[in-house]
Design a protein that fits this description.
Layout: H1 3-15, E1 17-25, H2 31-41, H3 47-60, H4 77-82, E2 89-94, E3 98-104, H5 112-119, E4 124-130, H6 137-148, E5 153-159, H7 168-182, E6 189-194, H8 218-224, E7 238-239, E8 242-247, E9 250-256, E10 261-262, E11 267-270, E12 276-283, E13 292-293, E14 297-302, E15 313-315, E16 322-333, E17 344-349, E18 352-365, E19 372-373, E20 383-396, E21 407-411, E22 418-427, H9 443-450, E23 455-460, H10 467-480, E24 485-489, H11 490-493, H12 505-524, E25 528-532, H13 538-546, E26 553-559, H14 562-568, H15 573-578, E27 600-603, H16 609-622
Parallel strand pairs: 1-3, 1-4, 4-5, 5-6, 23-25, 23-26, 24-25, 26-27
Antiparallel strand pairs: 2-3, 7-15, 8-9, 9-14, 10-13, 11-12, 11-15, 12-14, 16-20, 16-22, 17-18, 17-21, 18-19, 18-20, 21-22
Helix pairs in contact: 10-16, 12-13
Length: 627
């Protein structure tokens, strides 16, 4: 190839449009085989890869003497042994008309989270259905997730059509059933194609075995479908990932442009604070740019000194996003442990991570019928519509308007695992007329009047451990010393404030949330408040701790082995729980997570309640909380 021919070839490649798509569907519907077939037929498999594939097909293949194209993507040993896809595999290929990145996503229900990961950046989805099995629950689940993630274009690929005798009737039945379901999902286009990924029928070339199919082949459709993302025509958005300050003479804000365009001289605003300036330079490793657009990683310098930090979002002053600490969103739950309203998670959107709570689960969705129904929690792979509250206001767009700035993930605060993906629907403005009222009499004034330092003594332990007994003795000793106290006891509070709550995990979380907020008010009043609750979950105890100052919370772990508590059984609760009369009883059929670093640790096997109380009083004196 001459230099001129090479230049022309590269130039032609740069002018090609770009498409990201994914394959999804149920287990063993042929997703990996289809992509392998596309790579093979577009001649993008090198000779050494082909030889390895032939060798692997003999060892791991499921297609007899034929090449098993699925092995091109199922690279993990576990995938090859089980014949399923576990991880998301990305592959690049190109035709004369277009360049592609394809994500091969797992079909197994256990790995739905990986499917959602692949779908989050795709413009088109190929949903495969095994012609022998028809439309399954996982088929509907993946279609619904594609709709939630705003994938506008779908191909229904009825695979293994050769195994049903290339039956037009079976194809039409599957197509009709899927279209009836998909009509509710608002896809912009839906094309149905009968294929055999193994033999290549209607993948690249039209199959003589399906003369009744008058539509395009799969590749013809991929080459021609208009899936322009429109990110460049959306309003400018750039989450700041890093404040670049190598020396006193340079201060820039680095990030990847999520949408829109920007040029030097354009006005720019910090979404949350509202502070504005103008772009001075667009700096890159290869030199300054006259313009940057969606997908470009750049550093912006501004004409003015503006307070900007990692996580801030830069936007045009005339096209600002919503800014709120409350919003409603669709949530795909991806963890084995259920989602519990009231529990605190970490919410990550763009480059910003903030504490967040699901304040209400409005409904969850039956993926088979798309019906909505009431629920208190979300289980693995379930989808719900929730209200959220975050610790500080964040900037966002509706997901349907901007996939980049309208999406988020939830992270477990203890394991750091991603537990959910969310798509913001709208901000909640119901509390915009409520403002914090400044008061002349402050917490410090109230505490000074009482001559004490306010604190929460949070007693936690199993039922029967002696929490309430010890807390009662401690309060009596403090009262005798002239201290102002109040005791919030688990049983007593359930007669009033929390009388509407049961003992499910979700209700336990809400129980502790209310008590923690109440205890905070007592601290604000200058009171020493004793809280005696089983409070089985570390997450909720940690949330309670974070409501007050670092020196205003002491965790008291009343450590008593389960066997001892069961032997004591002062209220007969363990006996009833073991007989099945009480459900969700801590220590029997509901877990207890003991404190890992409690400030005060008392063991009631070694200490009497009076001795345990004396040890707690001594610790309060040593800490300077009481004289």
């Amino acid at each position: 190839m001459t230099p001129a021919e090479l230049k022309a070839f590269l130039s032609a490649g740069e002018r090609k449009t770009f498409l990201r798509f994914l394959t999804c569907g149920s287990v063993d519907d042929g997703k990996s085989t289809l992509i392998g077939r596309l790579l093979y037929d577009t001649k993008l498999i090198f000779e050494d890869q082909l030889r390895t594939l032939e060798k692997d097909s003999r060892r791991h293949g499921t297609t007899g003497e034929d090449i098993d194209f699925a092995l091109l993507l199922d690279g993990l040993e576990a995938e090859r042994e089980q014949g399923i896809t576990i991880d998301v595999a990305y592959r690049f290929f190109a035709t004369d008309k277009r360049k592609y990145i394809v994500a091969d996503t797992p079909g197994h229900e256990q790995y739905t989270r990986n499917m959602a990961t692949g779908a989050s950046t795709a413009d088109l989805a190929i949903i495969l259905v095994d012609a022998r099995k028809g439309v399954l629950t996982q088929t509907r689940r993946h279609a619904y997730i594609c709709s939630l993630l705003r994938i506008r274009h779908v191909v229904l690929a009825v695979n293994k059509i050769d195994l049903v005798g290339h039956s037009q009737e079976i194809f039409r039945t599957i197509e009709r059933e899927f279209r009836d379901f998909a009509d509710k999902l608002d896809f912009a286009s839906l094309v149905s194609i009968p294929i055999s990924a193994r033999h290549g029928d209607n993948v690249i070339s039209r199959s003589e075995a399906t003369p009744w199919h008058e539509g395009p082949t799969l590749l013809d459709h991929l080459d021609s479908v208009d899936v322009t993302s429109g990110r460049e025509v959306l309003a400018f958005r750039m989450p700041v990932q890093w404040v670049n300050r190598p020396n006193l003479d340079f201060r820039g804000f680095a990030g990847t442009i999520a949408s829109g365009r920007i040029a030097p001289g354009d006005e720019i605003t910090v979404a949350v604070s509202g502070r504005s300036s103008r772009v001075q330079r667009i700096v890159t490793h290869d030199g300054d740019l006259d313009e940057a657009r969606a997908g470009d990683a750049v550093t912006l310098t501004l004409e003015d000194e503006v307070d900007i930090s990692r996580g801030d979002v830069l936007v045009p002053g005339a096209q600002r996003p919503e800014v709120s600490d409350q919003f409603a969103a669709h949530l795909l739950w991806m963890a084995e442990d259920e989602m519990l309203p009231g529990r605190q998670y970490l919410l990550k959107t763009g480059a910003r991570t903030v504490p967040a709570t699901v304040t209400e689960l409005k409904h969850k969705v039956d993926v088979n019928t798309l019906e909505r129904f009431a629920a208190k929690t979300l289980q693995l792979n379930e989808v719900g519509f929730c209200n959220f509250s975050v610790s500080v206001p964040i900037a966002f767009d509706r997901y349907r308007d901007n996939r980049e700035t309208g999406s988020f993930i939830l992270i477990d605060r203890f394991t750091n695992a991603t537990v959910a993906a969310g798509m913001i629907e709208f901000g909640l403005r119901r509390a915009t007329n409520v403002h914090w009222q400044a008061l002349d009499v402050t917490k410090s004034v109230r505490a000074e009047l009482k001559g004490q330092k306010p604190v929460i003594l949070w007693f936690t332990g199993l039922s029967g451990s002696g929490k309430s007994t010890i807390a009662n003795i401690v309060e009596r000793k403090l009262a005798l010393a002239g201290r102002h106290t109040y005791l919030l006891d688990g049983d007593n509070v359930r007669h009033g404030l929390n009388r509407d709550l049961g003992f499910t995990d979700a209700d336990r979380v809400e129980n502790i949330r209310r008590v923690a907020e109440t205890a905070k008010l007592f601290v604000d009043a200058g009171i020493i408040v004793l809280v005696s609750f089983i409070s089985p979950f570390r997450s909720e105890r940690r949330t309670a701790r974070e409501l007050v100052g670092a020196d205003e919370f002491l965790e008291v772990y009343v450590d008593t082995p389960l066997g001892v508590c069961m032997a004591r059984d002062p209220k007969g609760l363990y006996r009833r729980a073991q007989a099945g009369e009480i459900k969700n009883f801590t220590g029997i059929d509901s877990p207890y997570e003991p404190p890992e670093n409690a400030e005060i640790h008392v063991n009631t096997v070694d200490l009497t309640p009076e001795q345990a109380a004396d040890r707690i009083i001594a610790r309060l004196r040593d800490s300077g909380l009481i004289g």
